[in-house]
Amino acid sequence: xxxxxxxxxxRRQFCGNSAILGCLGALTGRLGAWAVDxxxxxSTNGAGSLRAHAAARGLLYxxxxxxxxxxxxxxxxxxxxxxxxxxxxxxxxxxxxxxxxKWGPLRPTPDTFDFTQADRMMRFASLADQRVxxxxxxxxxxxxxxxxxxxxxxxxxxxxxxxxxxxxAHFRGKLHSWDVVNEAIKPTDGLPDGLRKTIxxxxxxxxxxxxxxxxxxxxxxxxxxxxxDYGIELDTPAQSEKRAKVLVLLRRFKAKGVPxxxxxxxxxxxxxxxxxxxxxxEFIREAAKMDLEVYITEMDVNTHAVVGGPDAQDAAVxxxxxxxxxxxxxxxxxxxxxxxxxxxxxxxxxxLHGSQSTRADGARERPLPFDDDLKPTSAFVALREAxxxxxxxxxxxxxx
Length: 400
Ligand code: XIL
Hints:
This protein is of the alpha/beta class.
């Protein structure tokens, strides 16, 4: 395999190339799996980076980041020794704030806005010549205590629109896209149109989504406005139903002239169990018919039920990434894929339960293209291969 993006393997060809690659066999059962011999020996920099491979196909590849972890001054001075900071700059051509643009960090009090960390990330992205996604303007989680304590039916509209006006205006013209509303569909809540029962629904009613999108469009006419959700990837009955409800929402938006440009598919995937397939592909094509782009916004592959050690986890994760990205990136209206973090050291999956592992063997999960030591895993190679296999070269989308 070279770093130039020349190699093109189907999974079978890929596995068959035993001079370079070793397949570890059917470790995950359903998928089979492959792994790469010594992925840590692979050159990941320059032309070998995910960033370069994505740019060559006109795609954006990126990651969620915590600006607190970045040595931005060192990077600005051209002499950061911090490997994590270097990794983010080298691998991603788009970033999203894992938490810094959510209400919690941005809104310490009802009257104040704290853009410190979000602005640090913007500065870094500018230095590293990266695009930025905003995440998010309206969600039911990470809402400050003062909001739940003081919002009521009389003031909720004003609180929501004021937040969106100030925040979207702060970043006006600088963002690639905004997740305007996050996770608003939950059919099991039993509300009309499958809407989730949230503080915003309770206080404003079903129109809060439209209100959020119209307010965001007025405050930042350049950002691509996105509806973002999870649990819409699989062909299971529950996820198929949720996907259908998201389509209903998108069609209603389009019919009413609500400004929306994209739908975000979070893509928190599971290495075991059912995998995404035809339903998601049809969903992406339905979005295309509405002139909507589809962004893969928060991809990772949990390994809580993968039996075996690190190699087994890596093989299973890599197989899921390869199949998934080949499925979605084959669609011409999917120009972006971001992972939710880039190293297992910083994955939310390893932090969800504090220091307690989600795995029976107590081991850490390995859901991302780099491991705890910032070494590339088989998932890195899978991502790169899937990016290379994208058959549509898009233009005018990516930065190098
Ligand atoms: C998660 C972050 O990764 C965690 O660090 C935080 O504690 C909770 O939120 N869907 C989303 C993201 O849209 O904002 C979530 O991020 C993960 C699920």
